[in-house]
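To: structure subgroup
Subject: Chain for Friday's discussion

All,

I'm putting the inputs and outputs inline so they're searchable in the archive.
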Amino acid sequence: MLKKTFAALALGTALLTAGQAMAADYTIDKEGNHAFINFKISHLGYSFIYGTFKDWAGTFSFDAAKPEDSKINITLNTKSVDTNHAERDKHIQSKDFLETDKYPTATFVSTSVKTTGKNADGKLTADVTGDLTLHGVTKPVVVKTVFLGEGKDPWGGYRAGFEGTTTIKRSDFGKMMDLGPQSDTMTLDITFEGVQKK
C-alpha cells in the first residue's frame, strides 16, 4: 500500500512538472522583421496620419494550455518613429511631442492576462493588461489580443504569433502639443512572431 502511495505521488509530481514545463519562452523576431507596432491618429479631424516604430524588441512566455500565465515585455526606441515624412518625424521626436532625447525608450510590461473567448475565426482572444511607460509616464493599458497560432518553422525553430490593438490618450502621458480633442486619441496595432528560445 505504501509503495502504491509513493508511486502515485511520483506520477502526480511528474505530470505536474511536465505541465509546468510546457510553458516556453520566446524572443520576438525582430531580426526577421516579423514584428510591427503601427499607429493611427487624427490630423486636426480632417484626415488620419499612419506611422510605425521601426526599432523595438521584446520577449514573452506562453503556453496555449495556460494562456493566463503568459507574460510579455517590450522595449521600443522612440526615435525610430516613421510616418513617411522626415520633417514630421523630427517634429514628433521634439519637445512638442515625444522628447526622444530625454525619453529614448518606451516600455510595456504585462501584469495580467485574461482570456475572453474566441473570435469569428475560432482564434483564442484575451485582454492583456500591462504598464505602458511613454514620455516618462507610466499608465495601465489593456491590449485586445488574438493568438494567431504556433508551430515549427522551415528553419528548425518553433514560433508563436499574436496580434493586438489598444487605444491611448496622448494627454495621459505628459504634456504634449495640443492639436485638439480629435487628435488626442491614438490607436496602436501590434503584430509579431516569437521564436522559442532553445
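Points worth raising on Friday:
The first helix runs from residue 2 to 21.
Helices lie at 2-21, 86-93.

D.
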